[in-house]
Amino acid sequence: MKKIYILLVAISALFQITSYAQLVDDVKTRGIKEVLARYQQYSQFSTDGSTINSEYTQNFLALFDPVVTTEVYNDMAAKKGEPFSFGSAMEYMQYVIKNFPYGIDVTLDLDQMKVVDKFQQKGKSGYIVQVNKKVTGLYLLKNFHRFNSLVYFFISEELTDKGPVYKMGNVLDPVSYQKYAGDKSIKGLYAGISGGYGASFIMNEGVKSASELYTMQMQTNMNFGLELCYMFTRGFGLGTGIGFSTYSSTFSISNFKDSMEYTIPDIEGEEYHPILDVNDLVETDVIKSVDIPLLLKFRTGKGRTALYIDMGIIYSFVSGTYSLQGTQTKSGYYEQWKVILDDDLDEFGFGTFQFNNEEEELKLTSTSNLSAYVAMGLSIPLSEGLFMKMGVNGRYGITDIGLGETHQPFDFSNFIENPGATFLHFGGAEIGLSYNFSGLMNKPKKQSKAEIKIDDI
Length: 457
Known about the structure:
disordered N terminus; 2 domains; rod-shaped; disordered C terminus; Porin; 5-stranded antiparallel sheet; alpha+beta; Nuclear Transport Factor 2, Chain: A
């Protein structure tokens, strides 16, 4: 299984190679090959196959730049439980000398060497080279150890008056290199677009507590937005953007007739108690919002496919409409005069009214809203720099939009003595596309599709 996985990694790397063709000219190619040839020689640590050569050990360490060397793959691990990698070339050398006192035989297939990427690390830059490495050695003078696989060498480049100087850096196995490449492709600046579909709920506390009077139902809605985020590491980033959302709910009431305890002013400023008579009435409220999210973005998983979790707050600018379906009779009791006006006085809003879903402005005491937000799902790479996300998300309103306090002529708040606060909630599925522009900006200029030719030394 491991061999199959390594093969898949190697095939994946081939697709990147043409993008980096001609990254190095003949002089640089020769310099890279020469430093690898010296590595092939000095990493054997012996000239006669029976003793460790001190000059080789010194020359081996001199090949490495300690500033950019943080991981050296242990291709000489002969049994389980031994270190998979080391933090320096010194540690790798000490392990080999201790366990292979006769030295080892090392062969790099330099004719098939390929430059697969560039890197920048701790203020230095260079090239990542893919080479097949073969090693044999006598482990503790008892058992033969053999290694034959692709290895990825990080080779730093320093430009001087006398030409480029090359040093060894990290040495990675295919699996570790894939993780490195995945981390590199995930970090950076992203821009994207996303959409969602799910159930929204305009939740009024008064209606909720008056369940014997009202039936409240959520509705399905869509939302979409433009996203901008920056991933500081593979696992953490910050996000913002702008979005457009819709929330809607229906409020149904049947067989209601009563005089309200609250009072509202008529067109002449006189206070009266509404008297309402309803057989069947359905109100549909629709809230539209312009959203500005502030999110913490978390990622976890191997390779470039990852589980994502986003959480934070959404600040929204809201407006709304409502429509009615049914019949309502309204009259008014003027306590100061001890009289009921129940004639068809349209100018006072009294009489019997037939509604046919005509939209009216929904007056809100607050034009802004704050919601808690959480989302989770999978982030899947589609191509270099392009990712698709699929998951679920939820919004929970934490500020009152003041819908129940307006007592508009015919909306649901007229039927409840104390409508209370109104909150916006949403839950559903989401899908989106995003592109990592950092990878585009850092990508070397493509000059040719030809593979790099390695000249003989």
